[in-house]
Each structure stands twice: as structure tokens, then as C-alpha cells.
Amino acid sequence: MSSTGTATTAAPKKHPRLPLAARMRLPANYLFILMAFLVNDGNFHWWALGLVALGSFIRIWSAGSLIKTTELITTGPYALSRNPLYLGTFIGGVGVAIFVHSLPLLIFFVVTFAICYGSQVRWEEEVLQMEHGEQFREYMSRVGRFITWRWPGSQLRHAFSFARAVKNKEFAYQMFWLVMIIALISQQYLRSSGLGVARP
Fold this sequence. Notes:
By secondary structure, the protein is mainly α.
């Protein structure tokens, strides 16, 4: 997600149309979830839940640091990544695919993430350059699109707000993924108990 909002007091600028690939993010995510249940054989890699937790932490930290104004946010998690919310999504999705022990699901997620989220990120970068010009270009020059290997030092300091994370609807997102993990575990429990919910 971009590190700024879109509210402005000046005349609104005409943004480029969101590409089709970016608009397919939600359908791709739904398909990923469906596939997770279809390939779930109960051979869980429990350690992969650590990746899911890491992805959740990054997203919550990012959502609690994101102030949706015209100001470009470049501190806190945004000093490590220009798109920390999407980074958290990627790590969490990889964790889910590994958790259910499915290489095809992992490949599907990585490929669709690269296509859909890559398109979304490029569109957002174009919009932010229109809105912030040289300031955003300077930010791009020192902070990576997803990961920055150079330690940002004091730039990591940013006031995190739990209320802000709630306002940005991050905990609804996290609850959805928590329910999914519980459902995957329950699916295998019901299957092993002879109560149905079998793989096709």
C-alpha cells in the first residue's frame, strides 16, 4: 500500500486508470484461499505459522503507522520498505502455502502476487510521483520497493497507534486470516475423525 492518502485541498489531479492486473488482486486472493482448502492434506508444517505471524506483525505495524493525509510517510516501517503492507501480505501468503505443504499453491501465490501486486505497486508509484514529485523520487532512491538492506537508523522512529491500525481496518484483515488458519486445521481434524470435509 502506498505511504500516503489521497485527500487534498488543491484541484484533484487525474490519476491513471488502475490496470486490470491490479484489479485482479481480490479474485486472485479468493482463488488462493479456495486452493488452500483443496490441497490441504493435513501434513502441516507448523513452523510456517511463524512466517504468517511475521507477515501479520509487519502489516499491523504498517497500518498503525500509516496516516492517510497528503503527507508522504517515510518513517517507521516505511523507512524499510516503500510497501510494507504488501510485504507483510507476501510473507504471510508464503507462510500459508508452506503451512499446508503445497508447492503448487506456493508457486501460484508467488506468480499471482508478482503479477497483481506488482501492477498495483507500479500504478501507485506513478500516482505518488504525480502528487509528490522530487520528494517521492528521492524516497525511491533510498528505500527499496519491498526491502531496504541499508539500516535506516533514526528513520525507524514513528509513533505507532493501535487506534490507527483499527481505523485502517487492519484487524478485520487479520481476523480473516486467523479464521482461515483455524478452518484449515479444523478441516483436517474433521477428516481424521471421519466426519467428512474430505479432499476432492
